[in-house]
Amino acid sequence: MSVALVLDKTVAIIRRDLLTAIRYRTGFFLAAAGAVTELAAFYFLSRAVGPWFRPEGVEYFPFLLVGTGFYTFLLMGTHSFLQIVQEAQQSGTLEVLMTTSTSPPVLVFLSAVSAFAANAVAFLFYLAAGFVFGAPLHPSFLGAFVIFLLSVVIASALGLFAAAVQIALQKGSAVVWGLGSLWFLTGSMFPVQTLPAPVRAVAQLIPITHCLDAMRWALLEGKSVSQMGDELAILTLFAGTLLPLGLLSFSWTLRRARLAGTLSFY
How many domains does the chain have? Predict the structure, then answer.
């Protein structure tokens, strides 16, 4: 498949989802209001904790801001892959979609692009609103961009695992639920250094933990790509390992479901 054809399909999907979002714009305003309310809660929580608490050397409010905002972005990106498969199963179109000229992994990726774009806009809004609340940001834009790309690859790989489980067992939501329940191990709201040593070792095996640490370094401390070499190497290792495994698991479960005639089961 040519790059031009992929771009044309991506634009068509984004246009479709944008028109849908405009039609149901009330949901956007409700989400924005919810984000502002959440930020206000974090702001007053940080004031209640006091200025003396500086996890990883930064103020607590921006620590919460980046941690919870980027964690939500990654979790929602993962969920988008599952949602695509679930909606196709519910509407009875999954079997048709998986037999088009576009390969199934590419089709799922393209369908998730607009979800990632929408979640990225939400994350930027989150950061902008946090800045209004007084969160000090000292961004390294190149570093943040590199981390963002690696994190998207990791979230996509996890999303493919969730989609594979959904096709095989109709229980893909368990994967997303499992990731969501591990929030306390990722350092989204407090540093993992405060955890007991055995639990801290487990936290280091979760790729999202490294995504949040690196994004905080880039946005709050302005660290360059060279200064984050070790963390970027870890993220690259996770991305290079998880993405092929995710693609393999999705393709394998899809092929088995076709042979068993269970592709449209829900």
Answer: 1
